[in-house]
Design a protein that fits this description.
By secondary structure, the protein is mostly helical. The protein is 60% helix and 0% strand. Helix 2 runs antiparallel to helix 6, helix 5 packs across helix 6 and helix 10 crosses helix 12.
Length: 230
Amino acid sequence: MHSDVEKLHEACLRDLGDPQRWFSPLGYPESLALCVIDSIYSTGAQRASVEKIIARYRGYRAAQGADADTDGVVELLENIVELGGPDSWATQIGNRRPTSTMANAPLKSIAVKQVAEALVALDVRTSADLRALVEEDDRRDQVAKAWCAVPGQRSGVTWEYTLKLTQIPGARAGRVVASYVTRQIGAVSAECAAEMVREVAVSAGWNAFALDHAIWRFESGRPHQRDLAS
């Protein structure tokens, strides 16, 4: 095993605990709509509150005879319009949390709408469209820049989280995971960090998505070991 891979493997064993107790990676691989909603509402929020929003959206779409788990951002925008715009959508589907603690910060529902509009403008309507960006650095960077230009999204955390929720194989490591890898083996690019995580997963017989998610939870200060059912 490569020395850097060994170092990262040892760090994961030390920091992440029993792989059987890692949280399963969240995701909606066929629903870009749910990825957008979850990522934007997840910042600074309890997971339970995000799950309630996802459940309300799914319930509304099911009542229409549709499947939220295959919705793209076009369907999401149509849903927002149907419910009277982002303010009304926040009351009926989302919640009224703002995008930040700054005075007069817009609601997260407005960020959901603006992100969806930015994606449509760049011909990214579905999870499949987003996956296609993995091999197109220029377009991926363009989409990331447009996403991060939306109020409250500048840090890129929600963009990185959306990539995880979409479960894009081969994506560059997000900022949080890359930071962890850098602390263990020295400065590396996001692409290199992702490759190192994959190599550790392969050598240890772990699921690469699960390892990435466990690192992300640990580095973010979130619980990374769940209770096992007795």
